Amino acid sequence: MRILLVEDDKSASRFIKKGLSERGYSVDAVFDGEEGLYQATTGGYDLIILDIMLPELSGFEVLKGIRKHGIVTPVIFLTARDDTEDVVHGLELGADDYLVKPFSFPELLARIKAVLRRGEKEAASTRLVVGDLTLNMLTRTAERSGKTIELSGKEFSLLEYLMRNAGQVLTRTMILEHVWGYDFDTASNIIDVHINRLRAKIDKDHEVKLIKTIKGVGYVLKADEHV
């Protein structure tokens, strides 16, 4: 589980990152809004913890940019501002929760778990669609142009990750962390093997190829013909 922490108070950032890392979360910490927006839109995170009062761009501006990119990653605001108007504004922009400083770490942890549980329930009832490819999260089936595609469990997980991040280049490291869920030898060709299997099932009989290789970087799934 990968978390992006955007907090300019480096002492608070170290405290939060240490606590979450000890509980098994992988945490990337940045200290200004501009870097936070870049990481949020390129890093493929499962959750974003976002301060409001940030250098360069405010947390509100970062969240606007995230949602403008079509990224639905859950966001929890951390802030010393507890005015009702700020709370409402943050939620209207698309924040999933709002925690006022000072806070206890157990409370933050509980909020994180609650937000992630809500996300899992919502994800379980959705259909992912990219071009003419559909992935049904309830029945765990895939179709392209109305034709059912048989997938193994790992192929399904890989395709889900690619589709949830459609249009975004995913590195091999990102794929390993999200699909395999543990440290793996990055020199291994396990990802390439599974990608090739997916291509044989999804792209083989279609003029438009959905899965593209970005040489030296990773892969991207997108419906148009050009990367």
Give the tags.
single chain; 227 residues; alpha/beta; Rossmann fold; Arc Repressor Mutant, subunit A; 2 domains; five-stranded parallel beta sheet; four-stranded antiparallel beta sheet; 8 helices; 12 strands; elongated
Could you walk me through the main structural features you see in this protein, from its secondary elements to its overall organization?
This protein has 227 residues and is an alpha/beta fold. The protein has 2 domains: 2-123, Rossmann fold (3-Layer(aba) Sandwich); 127-221, Winged helix-like DNA-binding domain superfamily/Winged helix DNA-binding domain (Arc Repressor Mutant, subunit A). Helix content is 43%, strand content 22%. It is built from 8 helices and 12 strands. The chain has helices spanning 10-22, 33-42, 59-68, 84-93, 105-124, 153-164, 172-180, 190-202, and strands spanning 2-6, 26-30, 47-51, 75-79, 97-100, 127-130, 133-136, 141-144, 147-149, 170-171, 211-214, 218-221. The strands form 3 sheets. Strands 2-1-3-4-5 form a 5-stranded parallel β-sheet, with helices on both faces. A 4-stranded antiparallel β-sheet has the order 6-7-8-9, covered by helices on one side. Strand 8 (141-144) and strand 9 (147-149) form a beta hairpin. The chain is elongated.
